[in-house]
Amino acid sequence: DLSNVIADPNFGPVLSTQQITYTVTYFNQGVISVYFNVGFYMAGAAHPNSYSVVLTYDLYEDKQIQLADLFISGADYLQALSDYCVTTLTNEGRLEFPGGAQPSGENYKNWNLTPDSVRITFDPYQVGPYAMGPQVVDIPFSVLTPIFHNYGALARVLNSYQNP
Prior knowledge:
Elements: E1 17-28, E2 31-41, E3 49-58, E4 63-64, H1 77-91, E5 111-113, E6 117-122, E7 135-140, H2 141-144, H3 152-162
Antiparallel strand pairs: 1-2, 2-3, 3-4, 5-6, 6-7
């Protein structure tokens, strides 16, 4: 929250800023998935930075969908997501900080649905330096089908995907 930052006269006319943009990555069958990019610059910093905020919501059930809600109980979904992301990022030369793609809830908190995938967004510094920016990996539904559960909001999404 930049509202508490006082303009420091040592930085002259350069002030701290914040900008929030959003992209709707999926909106169908009563499910909406929104990606928010929060960009900011703190006066005196070497460069601006950004981070992600995501929301996937079931409008029919009036509740937020959690990543774990997509998978059958007991499935090691974080390992499956990590395996796919590590392979993709490595093959594309985009994995410089491997710890940021290891199977932990914190590493996979920025996810969205798209019409045919689960999109994972890694913030700057998570899997690569700031200069690389955020890194995005789309994991096709077909890769995750063995561990997806098939009821509720996800069933509606998958049905829409399979029967466009």
